[in-house]
Amino acid sequence: MIKSGATFLLILLIAVEASAAARLLNYENRVVRAAEQIERIKTDIDYSEEGVSYIKRLLPRTEPIEVKGREVTVDNTWLYVLLDSYAGERDPQQRLAKLNEIAGRLRALDDHLQHAETATSETGTPRDKIREILNRPAYQPEQETAVGGFIKRVLRKARDFGGEILSSLGRLIEKVLGSGSSNVWVSKLVLILVACGALVAGVYLVRRVRRVPGPKRKKTRTVLGEEILAEGTSQDLAEAGLAAARAGDFRAAVRKLYVSLLYELFERNLIELDESATNHEYLNKVSRFAQLAGPMQYLTDRFDYVWYGMFPSSEADFADYLASYQTAMLGARTLGERSTGSS
Q1: Residue in 29, 27, 55 with CA at minimum distance from that of residue 40
Q2: What angle do CA 152, 157, 163 make, to 5 degrees?
């Protein structure tokens, strides 16, 4: 009774927080609490359903936010799409990747909201700043592609067609069975034919599945949701990042270089890779190395800003990022050589 009463009180408090037009600081605080819930879900899988429900109560799908006396409606649909995708995912590795993605976006959103209060007239009004932040692609639900929509329609029609066949077959069986004892042998014959048909269909499907060559699964490692072939190297990732930069995709370049550094640290036996770890958890692991702590802090902050925050990155910004990356890589190799020499 006490527990249910406490739960009701918690729901009531959240409802009060979200009612009317919440202040920007109140909204920012709830974003932080939602991020904390994601971290709890990562450590307690049994808490997933309750945690997801709590996050949705903390951050309604849409709500008005008061920013310095003016009201703006925020759309948290992006969060609901990711949470629903996580709930429907069965692959543990993908579930962790989705949780990391949600946590990263919430942290980046929190950082942006903290700075929005201090926005000056040169960068627009606070209301415009909030609207600009929440209109970024990172905080918008993914649009369904034409191919995806076509596949969904085909599957829906196939399901409806199969349902109609089963329904008609069920009515036929009921009609035969209800026609009286004189037709008992006919009834049994119909049931036998249906069973045989189902068996033949099952065998056929099994054989067809066995004939279809499945994709050969290659061993991979997962770093911040990115899969890396077991035979891949940090240099491969770095080259992919530089190629992305030459093509003008500095956001992807920043991600590739960051993952490349983590993989180099792993190859030098300086850290262990964990598919559930976030970029800040990796930062904590590296902070014990004095010569890496500084550049790693900068690289992690920029990774948050560009990747999760969806801020644009210019060629000049990337040049600074690349210089810090090279400094960190040099430090990693030096530490790795010392470690090898001492052993």
Answers
A1: 55
A2: 125
Q: Is 141 in contact with 75 (CB distance < 8 Å)?
A: no
Q: Residue 40 contacts by C-beta under 8 Å, 6 or more apart in sequence?
A: 47, 51
- Tell me the Cα Rg of the chain: 27
Domain spans, the chain: 2-139, 146-211, 221-342
For residues 320 and 253, the answer to whether their CB atoms sit within 8 Å is no
121, pLDDT greater than 60: no
Q: How far, in Å, CA of 242 to CA of 240, rounded?
A: 6
For residues 39 and 25, which has the higher predicted lDDT (pLDDT)?
A: 39
The full DSSP string for 128-192 is HHHHHHHTSGGGSPPPPPHHHHHHHHHHHHHHHHHHHHHHHHHHHHHHHHTT-GGGHHHHHHHHH
The two structure tokens encoding residue 65: 């936010």
Closest CA to 251 of 310, 301, 316, 295: 310
pLDDT tens profile 260-270: 999 999 989 99
Please enumerate in sequence order all residues whose Cβ is within 8 A of that of 214, keeping only pairs 6 or more positions apart, or say none. none
Residue 74 contacts residue 130 (beta carbons within 8 Å): yes
| 262 CB-contact burial (10 Å; exposed 0-12 / middle 13-18 / buried 19+) | buried
pLDDT, residue 264, reads 92
Helix crossing, 2-18 with 24-43: angle to 10°?
140
Burial class (CB in 10 A: 0-12, 13-18, 19+), 118: exposed
Token representation of residue 118: 């201090």
Q: Going by C-beta distance under 8 Å and a sequence separation of 6 or more, which residues neighbour residue 244?
A: 250, 252, 253, 256
